[in-house]
UniProtKB/TrEMBL annotation:
Designated name of the protein: Uracil-DNA glycosylase
Keyword Hydrolase appears in the UniProt entry: yes
Annotated signal sequence range: none
Domain of life: Bacteria
First-level EC class: hydrolase
Xref: PROSITE patterns: U_DNA_GLYCOSYLASE
Xref: InterPro entries: UDG_fam1, Ura-DNA_Glyclase_AS, Uracil-DNA_glycosylase-like, Uracil-DNA_glycosylase-like_sf
Gene for this chain: ung
The Uracil-DNA glycosylase-like domain, residue ranges: 50-211
Organism: Gilvirhabdus luticola
Length: 221
């Protein structure tokens, strides 16, 4: 696994790359990609960091696992490649966006446009074996991405963290609520959304309001 991560992150995370757990993780991932079909493509594993540089990061959305279907995952949580059918959680994200800000439902599920504006779309686990959800969990990725969250919390101010669902909410312990904004809600998955835990959270308008309060440019969702 080549750690082709943007320079702005490299110096902050170098200590992680030098640890024994990360070296073991690298060996595991390399072996998985050589012996099985895995997603996202190798060069896209760190795509979230490539498009959202550390200095530009102003919003963090935390997912759990990459999509495991063909052509879906490309290194950003909840996002799919252009031309790919929108998964259920993404459909509900776009429905809430439409309701909250009056933005027409987008044709493309590719969220690179968010990442390029400073939204870090971070999955807790960055790789997965095709058609095997959670197959790369508990191999070291979570330790790495927890460190990313803590690094942002410790080295920046006024970042808006969007924690959707219980898994993401558990990451709040890594974030200084004194220096940052934490917005929580149910997960956008149909199971949670249909029970009333997702729709109406207005996280997109609330995020932009919080950014404007500290003279940061709102996100063009």
């Amino acid at each position: 696994m080549d750690v082709n991560i943007h320079e702005s992150w490299k110096s902050l995370l170098q200590d992680e790359f030098d640890t024994s757990y990360f070296k073991e993780l690298t060996t595991f991932v390399r072996n998985e990609y050589e012996t099985h079909r895995c997603f996202p493509r190798g060069k896209e594993i760190f795509n979230a960091f490539e498009h959202c540089h550390f200095d530009d990061t102003k919003v963090v959305i935390i997912g759990q696992d990459p999509y495991h279907g063909v052509g879906q995952a490309h290194g950003l949580c909840f996002s799919v490649n252009d031309g790919i059918a929108h998964p259920p959680s993404l459909i509900n994200i776009f429905k809430e966006l439409e309701k909250d800000l009056g933005i027409p439902y987008p044709k493309s599920g590719n969220l690179l446009r968010w990442a390029d504006q400073g939204v870090l779309l971070l999955n807790a686990t960055l790789t997965v074996r095709a058609h095997h959800a959670g197959s790369h969990q508990n191999k070291g990725w979570e330790t790495f991405t927890d460190s990313v969250i803590k690094t942002i919390s410790d080295n920046k101010e006024n970042v808006v963290f969007l924690l959707w669902g219980s898994y993401a909410k558990n990451k709040s312990k890594l974030i200084s609520s004194k220096n940052h904004h934490i917005l929580t809600s149910g997960h956008p998955s149909p199971l949670s959304a249909n029970r009333g835990y997702w729709f109406g959270n207005k996280h997109f308008s609330k995020t932009n309001f919080l950014l404007e309060q500290v003279a940061l440019k709102p996100v063009a969702w």
